[in-house]
């Protein structure tokens, strides 16, 4: 059972895990040991709350297919156990991010005092530059 939050869980039956051979360098070990993990999680067929399902399906992530299946391949570690833990942690992080509701940004304007300070600073700077000019004989 994968715990997402205090109230949201993913049962182990809904997560499909298969061991595959890892790619890349690794010498003889990479050719004979299936240490990489391929994790599949069907969003639509899961027992997640509808809110999480909708947010995950709207999420634009390359790990989520058009069919609504999350596919995670973990092959960073040499052992299958560490790769499995890494894949489950990445799934948990993805589902948690979908559950976060961002606060809507409201554009603000500077206050009257801030505008006045800005204008005073510009005037002071202009006066300083005016004093640097050549003195014109009259």
Q: How far is it from the N-terminal to the C-terminal residue, by CA?
A: 91 Å
What is the beta-strand fraction? 15-25%
Structural class based on helices, strands and sheet pairing: alpha+beta
Number of helices: 4
Give the CA-based shape. elongated
**Strand numbers in spatial order across the main sheet:** 3-4-5
- What is the overall pLDDT average? 88
Q: What sequence of helices (H) and strands (E) makes up the elements?
A: EEEHEHEHH
Into which percent range does the helicity of residues fall?
25-40%
Q: What is the radius of gyration?
A: 29 Å
Question: Unreliable stretches, pLDDT < 50, 5 or more residues?
Answer: none
Give the quaternary arrangement of the chains. single chain
Strand tally: 5
The profile of the biggest β sheet is:
3 strands, antiparallel
Topology (SSEs and partners):
Elements: E1 2-3, E2 9-10, E3 15-20, H1 28-32, E4 36-42, H2 50-58, E5 69-74, H3 80-99, H4 112-131
Antiparallel strand pairs: 1-2, 3-4, 4-5
Tell me what you see in this structure.
The chain is α+β, with helices and mostly antiparallel strands and 138 residues long. The chain is built from 4 helices and 5 strands, in the order βββαβαβαα. The strands form 2 sheets. It has a 3-stranded antiparallel β-sheet with strand order 3-4-5, with helices on one face. It has a two-stranded antiparallel ribbon with strand order 1-2. A hairpin with a 5-residue loop joins strand 1 and strand 2. The longest helix is centred in the middle third of the chain and has 20 residues, at 80-99. The termini are far apart.
């Amino acid at each position: 059972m994968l715990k997402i939050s205090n109230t949201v869980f993913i049962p182990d039956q809904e997560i499909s895990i298969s061991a595959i051979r890892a790619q890349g360098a690794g010498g003889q070990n990479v050719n004979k040991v299936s240490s990489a993990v391929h994790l599949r999680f069907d969003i639509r067929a899961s027992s997640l709350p509808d809110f999480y399902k909708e947010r995950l399906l709207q999420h634009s992530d390359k790990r989520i297919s058009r069919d609504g299946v999350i596919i995670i391949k973990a092959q960073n570690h040499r052992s299958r156990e560490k790769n499995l833990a890494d894949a489950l942690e990445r799934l948990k992080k993805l589902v948690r991010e979908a559950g976060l509701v961002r606060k809507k940004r409201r554009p603000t304007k500077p206050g009257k005092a801030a505008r006045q300070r800005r204008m005073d600073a510009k005037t002071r700077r202009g006066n300083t530059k005016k004093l640097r000019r050549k003195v014109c004989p009259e």
